[in-house]
Each structure stands twice: as C-alpha cells, then as structure tokens.
Design brief:
Number of strands: 2
Helix content: 55-70%
Structural class: mainly alpha
Strand content: under 5%
Shape: globular
Radius of gyration: 20 Å
Distance between the termini: 26 Å
Length: 331
C-alpha cells in the first residue's frame, strides 16, 4: 500500500486559498492565450497550410489530455471510482494537468463542492444563479462556462480534499502543475520539429498540439458546467439541473452524460445505456483487463432508473456500499 502522510506545505495552502486578484489575472492569461493561439493556428491554414503532422498532434494531444481530465482528475482523484497503480496515477495526473484547468487539488475541491451544492447558491459554477429570463440565461451560461474563474472563491476548499492532501503522490503532482503545463506545450512543439525537421514544424506543433488543443479541451470541459446544466435530457430526477447531452457525451469522452453522473457520482461508468458512448469508461475497462485498474465501481442494473427516470431504492444501497469512497464530508 502506498505510503501516506499528512502534508502541510505552502504550495498546498496556496493552491487551496481563495482566488486572489493575481490568481484571477492568471486565469485571464490562461483563457486568452489559447484563444489567440487558436486564432493564429486558424490563420495559418491560409498561409502555412495544415498537414497530417499538425492534425495528428492536435488529435493525439486532445485525446491524451481529455482522458487525463475525465479518467484522472474526475473519475479517479475526485470520485475514487476505481483504483490503480502509482505509475498510472502519475501519468493520469500529468496528462490532466497538461489540460491547463488548474492543479489537481483545486480542481477536485471545486468539483466536490459542485456536487455538494449542485445548482444551489454555493455551487461554484451553476448557470442558474442569475435568473431564467433571456438575459439571465445568457449571464448564467457565461458564469458557468468561464465567468466563475474570475470571481473570488470562498475559503474552506481544503476540507474537500483532505484525503488527497495526505496523499504524497497526488499532492506533489498538484504542486508541480506549472511544470506539467509547460511540458504539455513543449512536447508537441518538439515532436513537430523532429517529424518535419524544420522550425516551422516546431511552431505549428506548438500552435496546434499546444495552444489550439488547450483551447478546445477547455471549452469542451467548461461546456459540461454550462450546457449540461441547461440543455439535454433528465432521465434521473435529481435535485439539480444536470442533464445528459449526447454531443458532449462524445466530445467529452463520456462527461456529457452529466445527469447520469449526478445520479451515481461514485460510478466509473457515465454512459449507463448501451447507446450512451463513454470512451473514458472504455479505457478504464481496458486498464482493468490489463490489471492496471481494480475496484471499478458501477451501479448494478437494478439500481438504474426505469424508463421514466424514477430512481429505485437500490440507489440508496449503492451509496451506502460506496460511502467510504464517496467522501461523506462533501456529499
């Protein structure tokens, strides 16, 4: 069993502190820079062209970092929906960090708080805080999508990640967030240069596999917070506005089956019906087959709702059976 010990470091305290002005300015840079890179890459389509090298780097980095978010940040670190070996945990933590959505500890704490207060006043990024009229919907959409990044966050995030701050591996991965971000931009640039043998390849690798990819991953993930709490189906009657959205179920590697996820947050499987495509879960199944994942938590068929979406009593049993990993302090 991996050694765990309490870790109280300035880095962790800084990561979990309320968002300062400097932090929010950093968020502004993180939002604007990939957007500018995306525009530059798009402009290059008419000037430098777009070849297989750029396409492969873009798709490969999008898939790698997108899976790092859904499998690593979300299903493993946030909800403990499966267990894995330390090297895989490190790889998933690094890939998730390369998506440039924040250090592991802050991302997990924010998401656990979202589940505890889903679409209630203390939800960090609910689109339903403003109002239901046209302007309110648009303002709520903006807030849930990215506006919340620039608002002062409340204190007390640390209580949502006590388990992770005591995990030496995860805590260190979170502290080195800046290193992983730089690596995520450097790798496609270096590969672009090595494949093409030109400085043009370095630049295009940086633009397409780096900045443009970050832009696409950002807005795919943020759409789960915004669009998947406004538009889609609600097969489960939850006390929130979470919804299933097929488009983001596919683009988000299964994340778009958001109503399913809110009904069974400890489940590693988000797509609960055969037609609900869930690439993140498929990768976990391959990991399990290879012996790299175990204790993969999924709800029994009897615990899934009927066609009208009425949760059966076995959901309560599922929750009790997984209570130790669902973190009672934030549920």
């Amino acid at each position: 069993m991996e050694e765990k010990r309490p870790i109280e470091t300035p880095e962790n305290e800084s990561v979990l502190a309320p968002a300062s002005t400097a932090y929010r300015l950093g968020c502004l840079v993180v939002v604007i820079t990939p957007f500018l890179g995306f525009l530059a890459a798009g402009y290059g389509l008419w000037g430098w062209g777009f070849y297989w090298t750029e396409l492969v780097l873009l798709v490969a980095m999008f898939i790698a970092t997108g899976l790092g978010i859904t499998i690593g940040y979300h299903r493993l670190f946030t909800h403990c929906s499966f267990e894995t070996v330390r090297p895989v945990k490190i790889v998933l933590g690094v890939l998730g960090s390369m998506a440039v959505e924040g250090p592991i500890l802050r991302w997990v704490a924010t998401h656990r708080k979202h589940h505890q207060h889903a679409d209630k006043p203390d939800d960090p990024h609910s689109p339903h805080k403003v109002g239901e009229r046209s302007f309110g919907v648009l303002a709520g959409l903006w807030h849930a999508h990215m506006g919340w990044l620039f608002k002062p966050s409340s204190a007390g995030l640390g209580r949502y990640v006590k388990d992770l701050t005591n995990d030496k591996t995860v805590s260190r991965l979170s502290q080195l967030f800046g290193v992983w971000v730089a690596l995520g931009l450097l790798v496609p640039a270096v590969l672009g240069g090595l494949i093409t043998g030109t400085w043009r390849g370095v630049l295009l690798g940086f633009l397409w596999g780096g900045l443009a990819r970050v832009f696409l991953v950002h807005h795919t993930t943020w759409s789960i917070n915004s669009i998947c709490h406004l538009w889609g189906t609600r097969p489960f009657n939850r006390n929130d506005h979470s919804r299933n959205n097929m488009i983001f179920g596919i683009l988000g590697f299964g994340e778009g089956w958001h109503n399913n996820h809110h009904a069974f947050p400890a489940s590693a499987k988000f797509g609960l019906r055969w037609w609900e495509v869930d690439p993140g879960y498929y990768v976990i199944c391959v990991m399990k087959w290879l012996g790299l994942a175990w204790h993969v938590r999924v709800p029994a068929r009897s615990s899934v709702s009927d066609e009208r979406g009425q949760l059966r009593t076995s959901y309560a049993r599922f929750k009790r059976e997984n209570s130790s990993t669902m973190r009672q302090e934030w549920q």
